[in-house]
């Protein structure tokens, strides 16, 4: 007997069909993600946008080829970039114009990156839909499905990554799709093999988006094994056939999305070798960390303390709920729990072996974290609990979701209407509200504040040579001399300016020019700022260095 369903083990009974109106609540988390994402599409410059995606497409049109010619990433992101040129290409064909010239002119227009960001954002937002469908299929509760999807859709970390022209949020979307299909293969009484095949194709698409997406084969394999052990009359040969079919579908899908893996094999091999060396040996400036447990701890700190909420205590509370949800799922449906935990576990272990910490690489774990958090909240607020406990859990969850939504809207507004004038006034208000502290202004920060009239009437500002200083006010690139010892991740400092991304994890981003940092002296000491850290005269003096070591 199945201890959960009290039915004989064997072929599962088909779940009742879902009503169309049960899908309507997914519009709420979709709005939470797409609204702020679209509003703040113009967040500034991104590292990889031009060189990694737009220029290869322009080069393809110039050379008359559909292949990207470089394979540090597989080609699905490149295909999406090609798709973004479709309006100009089709328009030129219909109008009898030169397609190459028309498209090349379009991709170099300032508005083209925004169109591309919107395309990546919309594609990535499907992760909310897949997650909602997964929980609805598994739990049969639209409320629990709504909570899971809303935790994902309201996540600021998910929103700003999703509007990047990058592949990480796309892999997240395919991860949620694989989980949905694999879960249906386990829970559905009929058409299990079709769901397995769909999951294998989705995993192939994920690998064709970013190579570590191939780890999504793990939950598909778990689903195949779970299906085999529950089916009447299964055999090892039948399981072998299923696994072989999964592998073939995965490989064919990958090659279809990245044909250069065969047609330009040497460039393909060179691209993979470069990224292997980059991540496992060379490192990447201040994003270089010690591989193994130290890297794993940094991954856990980001996932547990930031992904589900920008308020760290709330994020950790939801992560604790996720642990409750995982334990409950292990007790109720062990096979399903293994299926859902396989990809996050393999991803964390795989990435912890690298020496480069780039938190966008672990973004694909976010749907699974949201799923287990929603399940944990459901357990903690079950009817078996005292009414006071249920009310406290539901109230806290509602407050966190409202807080996430408010922060997302605020971040979008600050990013869309950013500017140094606004940042300077924010810093002025911060300094004026702390008359007991003394703020040393780095030369460029002083110039920026003065240019926007933000220094008038401030009595607690001084120069970097003043030993009384308790804080440094600086622009991000003023700190570049400390970037050898700067730790990527949360530091004790205030960051003022647009909220287009998480500065603590991307301190060297090219759109940092509209931000101003306020660092207490203990942080100055920790990151190793010293003489020469500020360009311009007067440079930071020995008195301040001595003060920073107290």
Query: How confident overall, as mean pLDDT?
Result: 89
Rg result:
26 Å
- Which class best fits the helix and strand makeup? mainly alpha
**Which percent range describes the beta-strand content?**
under 5%
> Which consecutive residue ranges, at least 5 long each, have pLDDT under 50?
1-14, 535-550
Largest sheet entry: 5 strands, mixed
How do the SSEs run, as a string of H and E? HHHHHHHHHHHHHHHHHHHHEHEEEEHH
Shape: globular
* Biggest sheet strand line-up: 2-1-3-5-4
- Count of helical regions: 23
Total number of strands: 5
Termini separation (Å)? 68 Å
In helices, the fraction of residues equals 55-70%
Structure write-up:
By secondary structure, the protein is mainly alpha-helical. The protein is built from 23 helices and 5 strands. Helix 21 links the parallel strand 1 (439-441) and strand 2. Helix 1 (27-39) packs parallel to helix 7 (142-153), helix 1 (27-39) packs across helix 8 and helix 10 (192-207) packs parallel to helix 12 (236-257). The longest helix is centred in the last third of the chain and has 30 residues, at 387-416. The relative contact order is 0.10.
Keywords:
five-stranded mixed β-sheet, mainly alpha, disordered N terminus, globular, 3% strand, disordered C terminus
Describe the structure concisely.
This protein has 550 residues and is mainly alpha-helical. It is built from 23 helices and 5 strands.
């Amino acid at each position: 007997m199945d201890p959960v369903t009290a039915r004989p083990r064997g072929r599962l009974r088909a779940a009742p069909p879902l009503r169309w109106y049960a899908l309507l609540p997914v519009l709420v988390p979709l709005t939470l993600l797409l609204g702020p994402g679209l509003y703040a599409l113009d967040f500034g410059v991104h590292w990889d946008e031009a060189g990694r995606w737009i220029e290869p497409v322009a080069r393809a049109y110039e050379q008359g080829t559909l292949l990207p010619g470089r394979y540090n990433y597989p080609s699905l992101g490149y295909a999406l970039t090609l798709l973004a040129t479709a309006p100009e290409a089709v328009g030129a064909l219909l109008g009898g114009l030169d397609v190459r010239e028309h498209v090349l002119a379009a991709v170099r227009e300032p508005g083209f990156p925004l169109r591309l960001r919107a395309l990546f954002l919309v594609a990535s937002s499907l992760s909310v839909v897949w997650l909602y469908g997964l929980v609805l299929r598994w739990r049969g509760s639209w409320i629990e499905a709504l909570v899971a999807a809303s935790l994902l859709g309201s996540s600021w970390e998910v929103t700003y990554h999703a509007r990047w022209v990058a592949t990480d949020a796309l892999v997240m979307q395919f991860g949620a799709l694989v989980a949905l299909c694999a879960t249906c293969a386990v829970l559905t009484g009929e058409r299990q093999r079709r769901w397995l095949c769909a999951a294998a194709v989705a995993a192939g698409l994920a690998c064709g988006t970013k190579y570590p997406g191939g780890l999504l084969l793990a939950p598909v394999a778990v689903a195949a094994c779970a299906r085999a052990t529950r089916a009447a009359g299964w055999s090892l040969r039948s399981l072998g056939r299923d696994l072989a079919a999964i592998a073939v579908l995965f490989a064919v899908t990958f090659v279809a999305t990245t044909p250069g893996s065969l047609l330009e094999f040497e460039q393909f091999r060179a691209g993979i070798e470069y990224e292997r060396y980059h991540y496992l040996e060379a490192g990447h400036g201040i994003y270089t960390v010690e591989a193994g447990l130290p890297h794993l701890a940094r991954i856990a700190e980001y996932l547990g303390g930031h992904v589900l909420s920008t308020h760290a205590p709330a994020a950790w509370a939801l992560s604790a709920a996720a642990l409750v949800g995982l334990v409950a799922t292990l007790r109720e449906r062990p096979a399903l729990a293994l299926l859902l935990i396989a990809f996050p576990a393999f991803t964390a272990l795989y990435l912890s072996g690298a020496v480069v910490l780039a938190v966008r690489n672990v973004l694909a774990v976010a749907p699974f974290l949201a799923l287990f958090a929603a399940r944990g909240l459901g357990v903690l607020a079950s009817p078996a609990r005292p009414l006071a406990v249920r009310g406290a859990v539901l109230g806290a969850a509602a407050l966190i979701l409202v807080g996430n939504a408010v922060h997302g809207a605020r971040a979008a507004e600050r990013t869309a209407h950013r500017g140094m004038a606004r940042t300077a006034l924010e810093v002025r208000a911060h300094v004026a509200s702390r008359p007991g502290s003394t703020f040393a202004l780095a030369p460029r920060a002083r110039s920026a504040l003065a240019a926007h009239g933000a220094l008038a009437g401030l009595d607690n500002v001084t120069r970097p040579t003043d030993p009384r200083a308790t804080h440094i006010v600086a622009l991000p690139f003023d700190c570049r001399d400390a970037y050898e010892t700067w730790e990527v991740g949360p530091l004790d400092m205030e960051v003022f300016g647009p909220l287009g991304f998480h500065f603590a994890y991307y301190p060297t981003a090219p759109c940092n020019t509209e931000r101003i940092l306020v660092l207490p002296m203990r942080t100055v000491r920790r990151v190793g700022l010293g003489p020469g850290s500020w360009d311009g005269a007067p440079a930071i003096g020995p008195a301040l260095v001595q003060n920073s070591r107290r």
